[in-house]
Structures are given as C-alpha cells and as structure tokens.
Amino acid sequence: MAAALEVADIFRRHGEAFRHAHSGHLGRVERRVMGAITACRTAALGGHIEQCDDCDATRIAYNSCRNRHCPKCQGAARVTWLADRQAELLPVPYFHVVFTLPAPVGKIAFQNKAVVYAILFRTAAETLTTIGADPKHLGAQLGITAVLHTWGQTLQHHPHIHCLVTGGGPSLDGSRWVACSARFFLPVRVLSRLFRRLFLQALQKAFDNGKLQFFGSLAGFAEPNAFTKHLYKLRRIDWIVYAKPPFAGPERVLAYLARYTHRVAIANSRLLSLDDHHVRFSWKDYRQNGQCKVMALGVAEFIRRFLLHTLPDGFHRIRHYGFLANGERSANIALCRHLLDNSKTSTGSAPPAEPVKDEAALNCCATCPECGGTMRRTATIPKPRCYPNTFHCDTS
Fold first, then answer.
1. Residues 265 and 306 sit within 8 Å (Cβ to Cβ)
2. How many Å apart are CA 167 and CA 185, to the nearest integer?
3. How far apart (Å, rounded) are the C-alpha atoms in residues 159 and 224?
C-alpha cells in the first residue's frame, strides 16, 4: 500500500522552488513553518529507538516538530488541552456560535493579522457577554471558549471565530444560576448588529492609533477619508453570526472540542494526489448541503493558500472569556457548580468524562505493529549538529 500523501511531501518536493520564486514576499514565520513541517518526524530532528516488551521488535521513531501549523503535531497538544477542559464541563446545554468577518474586512485582517484577529476575539466575546448580561435577554454571566479559524474548505482566507458558550450562567449578583431556553440561546440579529458596531469601532480606534498598515490594492486606505468611507460601507452590510443548536450533553462538547480546537488549515487525510504541477484534495461544499467534491490546485497556489493561515509568533488562537476567563476560572466554576446544585433547573452532576487516550500523539507506550505489545523507548537518537534549530514550537 502506498504511503498516504502529506503536506510535508508537497513541501519536500516543491518547497524549495516556491521559496525561490517568492523570496521577496515570504516572511520569516512562513519560512519557519515550511522548514518545521518538512523536517517533522525525520532524522533532521532526532528521535529514539523503541523496543517491544513481548517480541523484542525494534523501530526508530523520529521526533515531531511541534509546530502549531503542522497537520501531524496537533494530537499531543489536543490531548493535554482536552484533559484540562474535562474538569471544567458543567451539566448544562452548550451552544456553538460562529462570528465571521465580511470579505472586505478579511482583506484588512490579512495585512494586519495580530491587530485585527485580536479585535475579532475581543469583540465577539464582548458581544456575547453584553447581550447575555442584558436582563431583557438572559441577565447572566456566560462562559465562553473561543477558537480562531482563518480558512474555508478550499483554503481561501476566511477568518471566523468558533465560540463554545454555556447555556446560562451565574446571575449578575452571583446569587443563582440563570438558565437559557434549551432550544433558544440569544437573538442572532441582535448579536450580529452589536458585533458589527463593536468591531468597526475597534477597527477605527486601531486606525487612529496608527496600528494598521495597508499595502497593494489596499494602500489607498491609509488616507483617513478613504478609510472612513470604507467603514461606512461596512456598516451598511449584514455581518454573519450563526448559532447552532445546543449539544446533547457534556460528552458531545468534548467531541466538538476535539474537532475544532487544534485543527490546521488542511488535514493530511484530505490530500488525494500530487504530481509535478497539481495537488488534488477533497473539500465540502456547504452551499450544496456539504457535498464532497475534489479540487485541483497548482502546486504553488496550494502552498500559497496553506501559508495564508500562519499566525504571528505568540498569538493565542484559543481564548477564554466570561466566567471561564483565566484569572478566576477555578473559583468561578466552583461557584457555578454550587449554584447548579441549588437550582431546580439543574440536570444533576456532569457524568465523568472518559479519559482522553491518544498514545500515538503522546509519542510513548505505542503499540507494536508486529504483535500488538507495548513499545518502550530504549535509546535516544540525537539531532544532527549541522541542522539549524529554527523551528517554532508554539502549540497555543
């Protein structure tokens, strides 16, 4: 059976030509991502020798690059992150809310990733917490986990935030648990309009403070009047906020988290073929009820689209807000559990979540391919001294 195609194979075969052809436009982060994915699980990063406890079979296992953009390196980060989240699940409905930037704003975001993506996070969370706290809607503090995705199914730039939101929260005075309807969360039209207003206000402030840069076809927006006119047009269009039905229970929430939190632009499993000129991959057309289709892109265009989604160094793509904000999360969750225990609307304690197991991702105690026994590390293979240590290991 032929080995499955990987993004690393595309970079190994065509990456050098792409770097030469785009040397004037390829940034440090993009070059480092390409280098890390190319070297991932090869001798370039060193590794270790494993031996089976039962049949004494041995094999070499090379180290992972741990780059957060690598399709092969998200398993271990996902396992650790999910284990931390298990203890925070509450026995309440959870809603999935998506905030999407219009295409004209997406173009500005691409040239100002750190600034505009941060605004997207902040205003999406402020929209939910403001409407949730309004007594006309819920009158409660919500718990929010937000995940940034910047891609669509065809790898085009499509920045949006996936928010996992508790279906209720402590009352504003902290005296009781306020539950939302099991079928209805918050009015989408109200969310959309507030999100649009807050985002454009923050974008204008960033412009006034000199934090935005414009290049190429957007260079004219550097002139204040042109930028103001552009924002006026954006106020006249609808912004998309989508709220999905609630999950069936906490265990389904974990399944959701596993799918979304550590996803990269394209999984290796979607790659179909590679030749000297094209990459073929599968994609879902959600405008036609998720119909599965096949797309062929030129190699250079595929690499270009993949690299559109690299994030600035140190930028966190998973963030928490409301009573899940990092500062007082433990105390807030304890309060929520206390209020739920005293509430007639509580459905009881959350069932204990099954431990998350992903031995391959954790890169230890793997299964022997010969007999099914346990493989254990017996020796270390050092990284070659001549190989440059330039890889980004941020998995946030």
1. yes
2. 7
3. 25
Within a domain: residue 356?
Answer: no
Each residue's pLDDT tens digit, 34-91: 999 999 999 888 888 988 988 888 888 889 898 999 998 887 777 777 877 888 889 8
Q: Kindly state whether residue 287 falls inside one of the protein's structural domains.
A: no
The full 3-state SS of the chain, as one line of letters, equals CCCCCCHHHHHHHHHHHHHHHCCCCCCHHHHHHHHHHHHCCCHHHCEEEEEECCCCCEEEEECCCCCCCCCCCCHHHHHHHHHHHHCCCCCCCEEEEEEECCHHHHHHHHHCHHHHHHHHHHHHHHHHHHHHHCCCCCCECCEEEEEEEEECCCCCEEEEEEEEEECEEEECCCCCEEECCCCCCCCHHHHHHHHHHHHHHHHHHHHHCCCCCCCHHHHHHHCHHHHHHHHHHHHCCCCCEEECCCCCCHHHHHHHHHHHCCCCCCCHHHEEEECCCEEEEEEEEHHHCCEEEEEEEEHHHHHHHHHCCCCCCCCCCEEEEECCCHHHHHHHHHHHHHHHHCCCCCCCCCCCCCCCCCHHHHCCCEECCCCCCEEEEEEEECCCCCCCCCCCCCCC
This prediction has a pTM of 0.86
Domain range spanning residue 194?
A: 90-265+315-341
CA distance 160 to 241: 10
**Domain annotation covers residue 145:** yes
- Domains identified in the chain, total number: 1
pLDDT of residue 206: 98
Q: Is residue 124 part of a domain?
A: yes
